[in-house]
Amino acid sequence: YPSEFLMQKITEDNQVPVHFQVSVSLQYVAELKGRALVEFFHSNIAEVENEELRHLMWSSVLFYKTPNVEVMACVLLSTKAIYFLLDDSFIHADEHQSDFWNKENSDCENSSFHLSCCFVLKLNDLQSVNVGLFDQYFRITGHSADHIVTCLTRDSYNTHTFIQQLMAVLSLLARTPSPEPVDKDFYSEFGSKNTGKMENYELIHSSRVKFIYPNEEEIGDLAFLVAEKMDGLTNLPSLNILLYVLAFQVNHVEGSAQNTSSLQPKTLILTSSDLFLFDEDYISYPLPEFAKEPPKRDKYQLADGRRIRDLDRVLMGYQTYPQALTFVFDDVQNQDLMQNLTLDHFGE
Q1: Which of 1, 151, 211, 261 could cross-link 59 (Cys pair, CB 3.0–4.6 Å)?
Q2: Contact, 22 vs 123, CB < 8 A?
Q3: What domains does the chain contain, in order, with CATH numbers?
Q4: What are the pLDDT digits (tens) for 84-118?
């Protein structure tokens, strides 16, 4: 152990996305190759001696306790746990995290020693995995609010690969079998299904971890929400969501030493007539079982919306993935100005 193929695969996957800045400590991890990477895992991260590293992925992550702070992480999947190797600056990003992260080594801050925090979710504590729309993200749920993490891969291939690897690793777990189902009577068997609401697709793995996928109703709910934001300009039956993608809105920060740009996570939704940007809550929905009250904000909040007919041009950057697109719209205050002029001009 490990096989040459696995080492080559992990080395290929060990690349920080170009649009993210990471700390020196995570940059060090990103530069490790092959056997050095495996040795680093065993000497610094692994909790037991005989666990095997099976998969590595760089992804943005969100924690349930701090839903507004998106941070870059190196996600390591082993035969015992999922490890999230985090940027040390994450600790200071939010004042509510003092109880979440027990930080005892604050005296190291001013030294040349670079720290990374490692959040560990043991596979035995894993209860469910919710896959987001179009495999753009997935949420891992444990037994408490401290054990809920969303990985915003923004990439269906990365999501699919991680889920496949996770299922393979869970198959190795020796868990006690579920108790035999109790024979139900006719009324309890059929009465509970008459809720009128279709549940999400659930796949219960042999390890008893639930893998939950969105159903068609979620797209229908989203289309209804989008139609509401359009002030009834479009009739709902003809409204089709053509594209749903997790992206970033680029805000140029002027006046800094170098004109940097900050990236604001947004959900981009394209319909046949409009382009929308939403602020989406990726971590709170569907509600975990222990949640006592609904989240403070809606799942989708409209940030911006423009009509396609007002789109003047689209500018494409020449850089490789991720591609930058600039949408230029005609900035007309009265949207129906041209139409009114035409009617007036041709009178009668």
Answers
A1: 151
A2: no
A3: 4-173 (2.30.29.30), 216-329 (2.30.29)
A4: 999 766 666 555 554 555 555 445 555 555 667 89
